[in-house]
Amino acid sequence: MGAAGLAIFGITVPSATAADNVLRADQAVARACHASVLSRRASGADQRELTSTVDGLIQARLAPRDGAEGDWDVAVFDKATGKIVAASSALRSRELAESFVKKGQQLVVQACRYAGPARTVTLGVDFLALTPQGTPTTTGTPVQRAEVVRVQTPERKDKNRLLGLGLDVTEKGDATGVEVVLADDADRKTLRDSGFQFSTVNPDLSRTAREDAAKDRVYAAKVQASALPSGRTSYRHLYEYEYELKELARRNSKLVKAFTLSNPTVEGRDVVGVEIATDVDNIADGKPVNVTMGVHHAREWPASEHAIEWAYELVNGYQKDPAIKSLVGRTRNIVVPIVNADGFSISREAEPKGDFSRFDYEMKRKNCRADDSPPNLRSGVCKANPGGRDRGTDPNRNYAGFWGGAGAGVTWSSETFRGSAPFSEPETRNIREIVSKRQVTNLITLHTYGNLVLRPPGVADVRAPLEEPVVKALGDKMASRNGYDSIPSWGLYDTTGTTEDWSYWATGGFGFTFEINTAGFHPAYENAVVAEYTGVAPAAGAGKGGNRAAFLDMLSNAADPAAHSTLIGSAPRGYQLKLHKTFQTPTSPVVQPDGTTKPPIYVTDKLDSTYSSTGGRFAWSINPSTRPYVAGRYGREPQGPPQATQTLANPPGVPAENTNFPGNPVSERIPFTVKGLPEVDNGRFDVSVQWTSPNTDWDLYIVNSAGEVVTQSASGGTNSERATLLDPPAGEYAAIMVNYDQVDPANPDDWANGKVEFSSPIPPTYGPKEAYTLTCTDRIGRLVGIADVYADRGQTVDVGEVCTNSARANKQRRR
Ligand code: 0X9
Ligand code: ZN
Hints:
With about 800 residues, this protein is α+β, with helices and mostly antiparallel strands. The chain has four domains: about 5-140, Jelly Rolls, CATH 2.60.120; about 145-205, Alpha-Beta Plaits; about 215-240 and about 260-270 and about 280-565, Aminopeptidase, CATH 3.40.630.10; about 645-765, Jelly Rolls. About 20% of the residues lie in helices and about 30% in strands. The protein contains 14 helices and 40 strands. Strands 14-15-17-16-18-21-19-20 form an eight-stranded mixed beta sheet, sandwiched between helices. Strands 1, 2, 4, 7 and 9 form a five-stranded antiparallel beta sheet that branches. Strand 24 and strand 25 (about 595-600) form a beta hairpin. The radius of gyration is 29 Å and the shape is globular. N~2~-sulfamoyl-L-arginine binds near residues 396, 493 and 513. Keywords: Hydrolase, Metalloprotease, Protease, Zinc.
């Protein structure tokens, strides 16, 4: 896989001498440094002119000098045309602007002092030559064709086997198949050798990418302002996200605060987000916290667009819409549009679009981690590394939740590589920190594509949480707005180490993944962003409110005390209440490259959040004290015995071979009846049949009285089929037997032993209750109160005067 033959590596060419490297501006001017080349005399900026020494990459970095930080931004322009080449606008003075340049190209590097006290900043510029790796086997290196195919996966186990091939499996799929991206001939060979049946969905992904880019240019040229909250008409660049977030904060300083996450990326970029709340700086005000984020995966540009538009929605709505104003007033909102900043920069800056021979970076998914690659691929900047898209960790397999199990890559080059350890990556550490330090009651992580609202768990053999009906109801409600399918994550296929499989099971904060649109990773802006967000055709949410309305439902849920827990009591002004919890959660047994497993790793989490008292009564919105991981598993108490086994008699004769069911209806039909309460209570039924040779193939479909297929089993290479339905409604059903293929049609291998077996529902299981440790410290930090606090979802717990009367709080604990 990957960019072999066309891959490139970088040679650093040192430039600018030390004296040149200090840039100065005596005033700060809040402006978009990337907008244009400023006059040499303009205040608040400084420039250098350079000539590129290479055909390759420029990297322009800023670093603060002498402790004074401030906020400087940088932009690189083509001198002849004034066009922007690269820029970086994060919140401090640590910037990395990176893009492609031509040898001899004249450049203007412009640094702008946006805010803060630092009058000077250090500029470092590197040019990196891009050189073909190795000798191409032919002159005119063959361009690798990227395509999308739909792979037939009649049974769940087929999808899991498909994942094991290390191919690029999307979220667009259903019970019987899933779309897979084949990047090159190596991928095509892998799939062909696997024996899976597949059909082409899009024979030329490059062409689609070029067409989509052209559509985007036309749309942006034609439309002044879209119906989005910001009016935006095209995909933003990383520096535009950074700049717009800080402008939102600067223009709405009481309502919006921009912040830098704790861990810079592998390439050294600052990752930025905004917090939105009334009196935003008082982060310890006890309101529930709603997090919306995007772009764990580099190529999924609509994800960050939806996230930043949501930030605009809240800010605009706060001024203009009383309902939004009320919701914003009762919550705190954190928006991190781009979690994987390195990867996004590479995918977004790839030019020309659709030229996957050039570094295949437009379709990059992972981050820029290089340490886990083979030694010869460990060096070189991400945009110019010889490993192509192969290098990197999948940030959405790197969280601790069930890490190391099914549905994640074990080797460095897998598109779903889980990383060297849980939370080995800066991207996942950043999100972990937010979720661990704040009471994040609600979280949406945005991805593309497949039109799905996914809820935990991501892996089938983790039973649903005890509160499954509540989580499902919230997912269903959001799906009624965007028109997506609301399903448990494992419904499509297994994944482990994903965001909410950690955040939900460790904190109880509701967490969902949205897979936006059905057309691709970053298809036409007008559809994937404007239509999906606002809920107009061709989006599935047309007329239903779209993702805008789904996000508002999530925010309403955050604002609803019945959906989380609340601590009430009273505390003197200036006293600090702290909730603490430490626990260990095992990962999955850790799958090894040879397929064996090693014991789970125990990951220690520390949750520490603070409420700062303003004096008198308080109400602090928190997550339940017992983790869903511990609380128990969903189930149902049997209300009666299961139904007795029924045999399915094989009708005389053998139907003609049919590889095209249901298009061709030729089959055998064997009716059976499912009973219900009060006589019996069936938790599931299993229909099974057998025959002699694994080279013969019978397929089994179960239909209800309306003729709808309710479950099926259509595998190949076995001498049996087994179809399961959970909680089957009472009624008339039929087993449909399709004679797919006979080894020896003259001597038919007929099916036998047909039966329907019924089992009781599995009752719920309950775990122990967990507590938080609540402490109170006075104005000089002395511990003045301590109590254990148990809080269930929806419950309000009165801890009384915990700062002045711990005894009373302790009594509360014993009740
Ligand atoms: O694979 C992922 O990380 C997510 N899909 S994407 O196509 N955007 O990469 C979804 C993870 C959860 N999905 C399943 N468990 N199927
Ligand atoms: Zn994704």
